[in-house]
Amino acid sequence: MSQSIEGPEFRQYGSGVVIVIAGATLALVALALTADRGVTEWSFVLVFGLLIAVGEMVQFRVDRIRNRAPIATSAALGYAMLRGPAIDDPPSLAQIVAVTAVATVIGIGPRVLAGLPWDAVVSSRRVLSVACAAAVFNAIAPTGLSWNGSWTHALPLTGAMLVAVLSAVLVDALVGAGQATERYSRPFPSALRDELGVAARIGMAMGISGILLAAGTSLLGLWAPPLVVVPLLLTQFAFRRYASAQTTYRSTVRSMSRTTEVAGFSAPGQNLRTARLAAAIGNDLGLSPKRMEALEYAALLSGVGQLALADPSPGGASLLRTRDERRKAAEIGADVIERSGVLDHVAEIVRHSSDSYREGRANNPDVPLESAIINVATAYEQLALESDRGGAAMESISLGVGDEYDPAVVESLRRVLGRGFRF
Amino acid sequence: MATAVLVVAAIHATIDLPTVTLGLLMFAGTVLRPRVGQVNRTSLDYVIVIALYLLSGVASAVLVGAVGALSQDRRHPMLKKVFNGAQSVLCAGAGGLVFYLLGGPSGDEVLERPWDAIWITTAANIAWLVVNILLLCLVLTLEKGGAAARTFVRRVAIPTSPPLIGYGLLGILLAAAWLSGLGFFAVPLIFVPLYVSRWALSQYEVERAAQEATMRAFIQVIETKDLYTRGHSERVSQGVSMLGKHIKLPEDRQLALEHAGLLHDVGKVGVPTSVIRKPGKLDDSEWDAIRLHPARGVELIGDIPFLEEVKSAVLHHHEKYDGTGYPAGLSGKRIPYFARMIGIVDAFDCLTSTRSYRPARSVEETLAILIQDRNTHFDPALVDAFVEVIRREGWKAAAVEQPAPDATVEAAIDHDDVSLGSGGGATGSAAGPAS
């Protein structure tokens, strides 16, 4: 759902402010220390600073992957783990943080001027996790090691880099899970599980690119950054294309779900409201991102079967129809969705979305939880719209607990409403 | 036959020049392949070959190129396997020749002359790609003719080459990391970024295919309202696709055109079923409901980030060249290009399909009608192009399983039907002599 508003995202969330303040404080302390001690190896500072700034400038958004500037992350991690022979005096921890922070600000500048989206929280998170990686690397890699061509040096160095990157990824996942818990009211364990899932793929890929960058630059000097960055840029283009295809697909599903509204089978915005409530309940119950996506699609498309029925019901009140009719519509809708060949799991959810709890999930473990969520969300949306008063709708739902509606889902709905959910 | 000879020649040439062979890396090459799947083959192969130029010289690189071709998909016919093997060897050989002639560094020299390593391996990589493309073109020309080869170069070879040159740089890093003392442990470091990029590319394809499939499924539902128009949107998409290819649209516009063809009638979902299925002539208010469908369609697809052309085509596909169409009454070249194309194919598919009140017309008959209406209904230049395409490639008309026309049944009149008077949609010579 388009709940996240792009732009300077200081949001109303406490943790975001904490993260930005922590990042900014760390950066200022590091800047002061670096200014005091003087900067070492300017050429490396400039090249890596440029990479971080450019990476930040060309950031993009992929759904569910919050870090939008993989090149900036890889470059900063690479700079944090430089060693000889190419560099005589590896940068200090303070200098690493200072370079990362200054370059990030320089990279964001043009985006702010051009009115493009940016996110201070994400950038601050990067500064924090890079500081973490640098601290770990400096702590466990003996200073005597350098890339001198011997495996006795190369293997410990690589091992230390892996541990450093892993710690940075873990810290970032913990912070991310905390934020997801706060923003979407997800249970922390499931939020952490999802963050770690993303970190294991995307985070480690950025980390390994950082390792390549550090090792290559230590060996080949400043010839190495282009060797890593050109493939990274190409990968970023691939991701960008993927991201835009994903956006197109999601908006296609959303648009197609409006066919029932255009045809007069449902009230304007009804599908979107139902999907929004279903997503809030799904988040509350800690569904995985994959299941959340299927839930959203299923909620949007649950009314599609009505298209095949002859006449629209007035105002789209599908609650008023007989159960048989609704189940028939759900069945047809599931068949339609199945026909696309790519949304079979969504079809399964829609198929059971009009089953009552007693006929469905209570006795049949194959009925997905998502169906029960949609059943409740659809009913609440309809009732709330008719009664104009959320309380009355909740009362009606409560009457059907255990018979019509899944008790666990109704409990979750109560929590969601208690937190002030609005359509 | 020629390829078999080339394989033998290439393999002999490399065996004559034995240098250091990195058995371990060869092993890694063949072992890694099944794990990462068929899609990634080429990129892994050539990154390894490039690293080997630097690590242990040209000859062993070519040899490894041949080894790389040994484990192929068992389902491929023998000839194809032999060709693939020959192709690997020739590509690696061509790259190696360039590398050798330019005096590329090898072994520890790589770390001392990084710039030489970079530009010479890139030159070798380009040679590798050029030979690869030439060989594929040769096969395509022999199998399917020159046009297929040209399409391949335009659609596949040119767009994919720059990324392949870019990823080739990872071969240099592989060599450098190997020489740093990491040895075999350098391999996973290199392949993680490669794997991630492949994953993103494959996801892109997955998302796009999902979108296509979803649109098609929906169009089918919308078409269930009317037995006779089933498959109409798909066929219009097919028809404009043929027309678009004929006038050589660039790839993104071609795709947009196909989408526009598929979605042009999506707004019909907003027309009450009773109107669509109403037998006989429609009254004014019912006719107004039909006239609304292009705007409804745009309303529906408005949020999808299509090219703007898709939306304008959906909105204006019922405009006529002489300005008598709807909704805006645009005329001539002021009708959007895609809308003019869809208008032609839309009418064509309607006329070649059965309607409850008349049988399907033959393709030739319909083309004659289109030509007759060149200036009143349609863009004359596009009609000529479409007629040429259909005469050359033929047309698969609607399946005849639709109910046969029955003169006794008064049934709905298709809004696309240009063979009728104003009550059904349009006036035109297709309506025939007034009766």
How would you explain this protein's 3D organization?
The complex is a heterodimer of chains A (423) and B (435). Chain A has helices at 14-37, 42-57, 70-80, 93-114, 120-140, 151-184, 188-220, 224-257, 259-262, 270-284, 289-301, 323-339, 344-351, 369-387, 390-399, 407-418. Chain A folds into 2 domains: 14-248; 258-418, Hypothetical protein af1432. Chain A has 423 residues and is mainly α. In chain A, helix 3 (70-80) packs antiparallel against helix 4 (93-114) and helix 3 runs parallel beside helix 5 (120-140). Chain B contains 18 helices and no strands. The longest helix of chain B is centred in the middle third of the chain and has 38 residues, at 186-223. Chain B is elongated and about 85 Å long. Residues 12-23, 33-41 and 421-435 of chain B have low confidence and may be disordered. At the A-B interface, helix 6, helix 7, helix 8 and helix 12 of A face helix 7, helix 8, helix 9 and helix 14 of B.
